[in-house]
Amino acid sequence: MSLHKWCSNTPEILNSIPKEEQSWDFHCQSSDQIIIKTLGIIWSPQFDYFSFKTVVNCRESYTKREVLSIIARLFDPLGFLGPILTQAKLILQKLWVLKLEWDESLSNPIAKEWNDFVSTHPVIQNIHVPRLVIGKGRIIIHGFADASTAAYGAVLYAQSISEEDVSTRLLVRQIRVALVKPITIPRLELCACVLLSQLLEKVLHSLTLPIQQIMLWTDSNIVLAWIQRSPEQLKTFIGNRIKIIQRLTQNCQWNHVSSNENPADLISRGLNASDISSKQLWFLHNSRNPSVKRSGQLDYSEVNEAELCLIKNLQASAFQEEIEFLAKSSCNSKKSPQALLYCTRQRFWPLRGRSIARKIVHECVVCFKNKPIVANQLMGSLPRERVNPSFPFLHTGIDYCGPFFIRYKHQRKGTYQKIYEAIFVCLASKAVHLEIVSDLTTDAFLATLKRFVARRGKCATISSDNAKNFVGANREIKRLHNLLKFPEEKFSSYLSSEGISWNFMPPRAPNFGGLWEAGVKSFKFYLKRAVGNPKMTLEEFLTIITQIEGILNSRPITPLSEDIDDLEVLTPGHFLIGRPITSISERNLLDKTENTLSRWQKLTKIVQYIWTKWSRDYLNNLQQRNKWQFHKDNVKLNTMVLIKDDNLPVNKWSLGRITKLVPGTDGKVRVVEIKTNKGNIKRSIGKVCVLPLDN
C-alpha cells in the first residue's frame, strides 16, 4: 500500500517526495498558516509542536450519552493529556455506578463535577507539546508508576544526554481506572508496576534506537520489596504479577521516588485542564532543561554555597596528602585536649592552641561517646505534697526491697520461702510503714495496700516507680472504680473522690523518688545491724521489721537544738501518736480533774506547735541544695542523644532522638521521650547525654 499525505518541516525531505503524495493543505498554504490536523491532534510545522482542538458547547444539563461523546472527542494516543483523561474516566465510572439511562440527565453532585470539568475544557487548546522527543547523545528511559484508590497509571520519559545539552521529554502514558470493589493500595501499586512493565515492552519494541539505560521508579517500598523476592514465596495474586514484572524488566533498575516527585501521581489522581499546564512535573522538559537552570539571578545562599564548594575543591587539590593522612590516621583520636595539643606541638605551633584543642575535643562526637556528659538541670522546687500540712500518709511513696528468706514455725528444717518488704513513706512527715509482701504479683500488692489503708487511713496520692506490679495495681483499682459506679451522681462523685491518684516517676530515675529510696536504704541498714543475714521464722521477721519501723519513726527530721534545755526534737512519731515511738511512757494522769474544754485546747495547741516546728525547722532544712544549683538551657526537640545504661559499657549505649519534652511546673525540662531503634522510651535528663551536633 502506498502512503499519501506526507508532510515535513524539512525542505530536503519534502523535495524527495512527489507533490501528489504530499498533504494538500501543506503545500497550498503559506508557511505561517500551515497546520496539520489528524483526529483532533494539530501539528504546527513552523513551531514543531502538537496541540489539541476541542469544541464543547456548554449547557445547563447533560446526559450520560453526551458525557461519553465529549470524552471520546479527546483523541490522545500518546497520553499528553493523561491527568485530564483520568478525571474524565472517573466521572464516567461514577455514572455507571449510578446506573443512569443513556438519555437521563445528570443529577447533583455528579452534574456539578461534570460542569466544572467542561468549563475548563477550552484551556486544552492552549497546551503545546514539542514533537521532538529523542535528541542527540545517549538515551536513558525513565518509567514511573503510581496508584491511588481511584486509578493507577504509568508514564515513560526519554532523556537525551549530550555534551551540549540534557533534555527530558514525555514519551507515552497509560491509565487504568481502579475497580469499584476496594483493593489495598499496595496491590494497586503493584498493578501500576505491571502496567509500566507492559508499556515499556511496547515502547522498546517500537523504538529502533540504542537505549543505554532503563530506570523504573515507584513510591511504594512494599512493591520494591516484592520485586526482590521469589514469586513462589508470595500469595497467588501478588506472585503472578511479580512474575510478569521480573520477566519484562530483567535488564532494568527499579528505584524508589517520593510521591511529590513522581509524575505518575498526577495520572492516578487527575487534574483539571487549567492546572495541567502549570505542572512542571508532568512536562519535565520545562524544569529539567539546563538552560532554564542557568537563567535568572543567584541569591545570597546560592553564592555562599558556590563559594564553599570552590574552597573545598581548592583545599582538596592543594592539601591532598594532608587530607588523606587525616582520613587514614587515628592516632590522635580519643585524646584529652591537653594530649591533643601536645601531639600537635610535636610538629606545629598553632596559635591559641589550647582553646582550639579544647573546642575540637568537645565538638568531636567520637570523643564524646567515649566520655559522655549527662545532661542536668536546676533542682526543681519541692512538690506541694511535701510542703503542705496534711494527715499522715495522705500522700505516700512506695517501694519494694528484698527478697528475704523466712521459714514457718512448723516447716521442716532447711525449707525457706521468699518474701519481700513494701515500704510506705509519708511525703509530708517522712513517717514509715512496713508491710510484708508474699510475691511480686499485682494481687499480692493489692492485699498489702488494703492492710496499709486499714491501719493508716486512705491515701489521696501514691507515688512509685514503673514496676509492673505497681502499674498493674493501678489498672486494677481503676477497673474496680468503674465497676462500683452507680447512677446516683452524689454517690458516683463520692467514690471518685475516694479513689487513689497514682503517680509514676520516669523509668531509671531514682532521684525522682529519693524519699522512699532513702527509706529503703535506712531499713536495710538497721536490718543488717540487727540480724545480719540469717534465716528467720515469719514471727521473728515480723518482730524485727516492726521494731525497725519504730526506730525509723523516732528519728529526728530536724537538726538538734543547741539549747541545753530543749530536749524535744521533731520526729515522724509526733505526727502519728504525738510523741516519738520509742520514748518512755508518761505517768498516768487520769485521776487528775481538768476542764474538758481546756484539755481540748491544750491538745490542739500541742498539735499546732508540732506543725509550726515542722514548717520552721524541717521545711527550711529541705531547702538546702547540694547539687544542681544552676539554671541550664532546656534540651531541644529532635536532638540526638546517648542513653545512659549502667549495665552496659559506654561504647554500647544506644542512640536516640528526643521526640517530646515533659516540662515541670517551673517550665524546666527534666523528663523527655526518646525515639530509638527499639521504640519510644521515657527517661530523665540525668540518663541522656546530648551529642555535640549542630543539627
Automatic annotation (TrEMBL):
Coiled coil: none annotated. GO terms for molecular function: nucleic acid binding. Residues 388-580 form the Integrase catalytic domain. Gene3D superfamilies: Ribonuclease H-like superfamily/Ribonuclease H. Pfam families: DUF5641, Peptidase_A17. GO terms for biological process: DNA integration. InterPro entries: DUF5641 (IPR040676), Integrase_cat-core (IPR001584), Retrotrans_Pao (IPR008042), RNaseH-like_sf (IPR012337), RNaseH_sf (IPR036397). PANTHER family: PHD-TYPE DOMAIN-CONTAINING PROTEIN (PTHR47331). This is Integrase catalytic domain-containing protein. The gene is AVEN_162731_1.
